[in-house]
Write a structure and sequence with these properties.
Elements: H1 6-34, H2 38-41, H3 54-64, H4 67-98, H5 104-113, H6 123-131, H7 135-144, H8 146-154, H9 168-172, H10 179-189, H11 194-202, H12 207-218, H13 220-235, H14 239-244, H15 253-256, H16 270-290, H17 292-300
Helix pairs in contact: 1-16, 3-16, 4-10, 4-13, 5-10, 13-16, 13-17
């Protein structure tokens, strides 16, 4: 046990204060820059006193980047990915922990290995699947010779097409698998007492009822913590929405922020760009504030 002393408390508080300053300084600079006019924000050095043009810059950023539609797209994108990942991670972990079948640990480790393959590494095959979701099925039919056999017998050439580009489905569907979520749910489900499983079975509950009526309520804090992490990380996704959406109708907020960044030969309106940054980072910040208590409890709680 660490003994509490005035000197130790003083240095601890100083370290926390320094960390707080380092974390909040970029946000403070963004807020100050968003409150100045064009002339003031381009001064060197920029004044560190807030100005009086914040609302004006927020309105300009909202209209220039069409942030109304972009924020709705980002909300659909982040919420859809979070909900889908939570569902598939929980049902996969439920299968691995509570069912006894051959190869279940092999399946788990194959899922776990995908942690070493971030989206940037598998972006090309993922994009190919999004361009034609039925492409792998056609490839399997060609590999097995089924397509060739149908061509010889009936003159039928199977070429299935399902284009997911420029759609909310294309944004969400390729990202719904999560090895991290499966691992966290597996670790939680392994702590569920066997007596609870037996009691539920004696009560007449089947696997589906046990999953929805017992396991999901028990994992509520884990679910909120994981969904918060997924929502924020998905909201900040840039590369995948940039590739999948080529129409402004489906562009996310992070993509639309690019239209506010001054070009080399353009007007250096950094005040409007910083105002757009404030608008875009407000929703994930609100989610973190609202879910903070459950988020911390889901990460550190040992109560079952």
């Amino acid at each position: 046990m660490i003994e509490r002393t005035p000197i130790f408390n003083f240095f601890t508080q100083c370290a926390l204060l320094c960390g707080l300053i380092v974390a909040l300084l970029p946000f403070a600079i963004v807020l100050i820059a968003a409150s100045h006019d064009l002339h003031t924000v381009n001064q060197v050095p920029m004044p560190l006193i807030p100005g009086s043009h914040l609302l004006e810059n927020l309105q300009a950023a909202w209209h220039e980047a069409n942030l109304g539609t972009a924020l709705i797209n980002s909300l659909i994108f982040a919420s859809g990915v979070a909900l889908a990942k939570i569902f598939f991670a929980s049902i996969t972990a439920f299968s691995i922990v509570f069912f006894r079948y051959r190869g279940r640990m092999v399946v788990f480790w194959l899922i776990f290995v995908t942690l070493m393959l971030p989206l940037e590494v598998r972006i090309v095959p993922t994009y190919a699947v999004a361009a034609n979701a039925f492409g792998p099925i056609t490839a399997v039919l060609d590999m097995l010779g089924i397509n060739w056999l149908l061509q010889q017998l009936a003159g039928i050439d199977i070429r299935l097409q399902w284009n997911l580009l420029n759609s909310h489905t294309g944004l969400i569907l390729p990202l719904i698998a999560t090895a991290t979520g499966t691992f966290l749910y597996r670790q939680f489900f392994m702590t569920v007492p066997d007596e609870l499983v037996e009691a539920s079975r004696m009560d007449g509950s089947g696997p589906i009822r046990f999953f929805f009526d017992v396991l999901l309520p028990l994992s509520r804090t884990t679910m909120i913590a994981l969904s918060t992490i997924i929502f924020v990380s998905t909201w900040n996704q840039y590369l995948w929405p940039l590739l999948v959406t080529t129409e402004a109708e489906y562009a996310t907020a992070t993509i639309q922020l690019r239209s506010l960044i001054p070009e080399s030969a353009g007007l250096p309106n950094w005040n409007v760009a910083m105002a757009g940054t404030l608008i875009i980072m407000a929703p994930p910040l609100a989610v973190m504030i609202i879910a903070q208590r459950w988020f911390v409890r889901g990460l550190i709680s040992t109560e079952k």
